Amino acid sequence: MTTRTTTPPALHVRDVTVRFAGLTALDDVSFTVAPGTLHAVIGPNGAGKSTCFNVLSGLYRPARGSVRLGDEELTRLAPHRIAALGVARTFQNIVTTQGTVADNLMLGRHVLSRSGFAASALRLPRALREQREHLAAARGIAELTGLGEHFETPVALLSYGDRKRVELARALCLEPRVLLLDEPVAGMNAAERARTAEVVRDIRAELGLSVVLVEHDMGLVMRLADEVTVLDFGKAIAHGTPDEVRGDPEVLRAYLGTETTGEDAA
Ligand SMILES: Nc1ncnc2c1ncn2[C@@H]1O[C@H](COP(=O)(O)OP(=O)(O)OP(=O)(O)O)[C@@H](O)[C@H]1O
Ligand SMILES: [Mg+2]
């Protein structure tokens, strides 16, 4: 499998503010994802976590603030440009139902294709070779994400846990340097959660990328994260190691003050 072997640059989020008609969804939020680390972004429902991912992936433009990957300014780039620079994401509520696992992963590879559509349609040798390489890479990613034995299986026939992991595998097919995972285990049972946690660990060990993880499953966050940023009503109220944030009085207040803590927003 072809992978980027260099350590990813740091992802700098600085003073990001997002407003929706009267509501400040993100209020001057700053944090840094150190190279090659797993950085969790947690907080109660509506805290602004998915909004933050929408800014990082270029779907929303912040009213102010900036996002940089190393020296590259991502703030005003279109989503496909950000993806091409190596930032890939999964969506909180998308679980694919169409095609086989291979079909879905090849869609993820599409962005990396060098031969144009015409060359592929005409079945030119270079396009065919490229196609074979992409298929091999997709197969490698399927293996890495625990979907190897289901490569040719229609996703509609997979268990929920496997189907949700197809979304993760599809994002990985972009060969990201930074992978944004928005609630990757929401709706999964305990065994599927454990399997997915293992996959996230394997991905990091194998590919050396940075991961930004949004998750309500605190056990998973505490086990996987190097660092945690806690959002509450759009503000970053705490940063630190899992142990540091767990004991932070502000964090306890934010969580105890909400009735939906721990629920899955699947
Ligand atoms: N496109 C939008 N238009 C208007 N308001 C929005 C939009 N997107 C998000 N919001 C609001 O911004 C706030 C933050 O939402 P966001 O989806 O980022 O929360 P979240 O932390 O991901 O929550 P959850 O844990 O439930 O997924 C919420 O009050 C939400 O209703
Ligand atoms: Mg969300």
From TrEMBL:
Database matches in CDD domains: ABC_Mj1267_LivG_branched (cd03219)
Domain named ABC transporter: residues: 11-258
Upper classification of the organism: Bacteria, Bacillati, Actinomycetota, Actinomycetes, Kitasatosporales
Single GO MF descriptor: ATP binding
Protein name: ABC transporter ATP-binding protein
PROSITE patterns referenced in this protein's UniProt entry, alphabetically: ABC_TRANSPORTER_1, ABC_TRANSPORTER_2
Source domain of life: Bacteria
Pfam family, one: ABC_tran
Keyword terms of this UniProt record: ATP-binding, Nucleotide-binding, Transport
Keyword match Nucleotide-binding: yes
Source organism: Streptomyces viridiviolaceus
Tagged with keyword Transport: yes
